[in-house]
Amino acid sequence: MATAKLPEKVLMVDDEANILDSFRRELRGKINLDTALGGEEGLAKLSRHGPYAVVVSDLRMPGMDGIEFLAKVRAAWPDTVRIMLTGYADVQNTISAVNEGHIFRFLTKPCDSVTLVKALAAGIRQYRLVTAEKELLEKTLKGSIAVLTDLLALVKPEAFARASRITQWVMQIVRELGEERTWEFEAAAMLSQIGFVTLPDNLIKKVCQGQELDREEEEMFAQHFRLAAELVARIPRLEEVSRIIAYQEKRFDGQGPPEDQVAAEDIPLGARVLKVVLDFDSLLSGGYSKGRALEVLKARRGWYDPAILTLLDQVLGVEARYDVKEVGLLGLEEGMVLAADVVSRREGKRLLAKGQRLSRTLIMGLLNYQRMGGVQEPIRVLVPLGQG
Known about the structure:
Blueprint: E1 6-14, H1 17-27, E2 31-37, H2 39-49, E3 54-58, H3 66-76, E4 81-86, H4 91-101, E5 105-108, H5 113-155, H6 157-177, H7 182-191, H8 201-208, H9 215-233, H10 239-246, H11 269-285, H12 290-299, H13 306-316, E6 322-327, E7 337-338, E8 342-343, E9 350-352, H14 360-372, E10 379-384
Helix pairs in contact: 2-3, 3-4, 5-6, 6-7, 6-11, 6-13, 7-10, 9-10, 10-11, 11-12, 12-13
């Protein structure tokens, strides 16, 4: 009875076309096989047609040998199982291949089809185990985070709204940082406020609106991120997320909770980002414009990582250098930038788009439209900081 072909793809890489032809003949109907002539072509096929469950490479190849090739495969496609096939019984090369490429199997030429199929089948089983565990972990983590955030949304909607706002800012900064493990930053931001479930609503409102807290309220507030860190620490693989949450109120100079010697770059990067974003959000909620809020943060010496403040400035762009002001139609001036669309009073039709810099002609056009159909007032504009 014929054995069904395994569905996962296998890539065989060798610098000799006749050897690749023999692999195709031997494995036809048994393995979903693709081939590549040399390491460069192998990497190109992985990029275009991957992922592959298993990659088999010859050791001795001109240009890029099998050790270098499989090391690159491991770096770019870590889940792919790697097998080395060679006719050279070189112990040192074998050690290098295992250490640099983390080889699953090492086979010698000539390798009969039965042995090769068994090795490939074992490699595919290993790939299935790795990917199944990874998928299970991702679903478990996402599910756990979703349950906790859904709970926060139901019990403390104001805290959930704050978590959602800061997550957007955190992710913008993280993208500027070029960090790879962005999910840890996102999870920390979304779960940073989960401890608010223990706080009274009036205290949460004061915090979210950037109001000053008295001593007793400060002590109560300090408990929320400790509780959040403890809850998150119970979820496997979220240890670093828990540590970020635990240090979210720590100042760059080492002042603030938790009371320890950790300071500056020793504070988790995610916590340094969170500290900036949380305080920025509190100022916005307290009525500050984005530009004014950034000025306040910069004036607090020793509180924040200067590099994170610079990135926030970059993310804000033009908004960081302007203040938001609401004016009537007659208060418009040349050079002002619209902070929101200008729309007609009756139909709500957009007359000018957000971001438009006002000229004398545009202002006159709005004044003329005011006589005909009316313009919704007040109009939100950006004014350079220090003016108005």
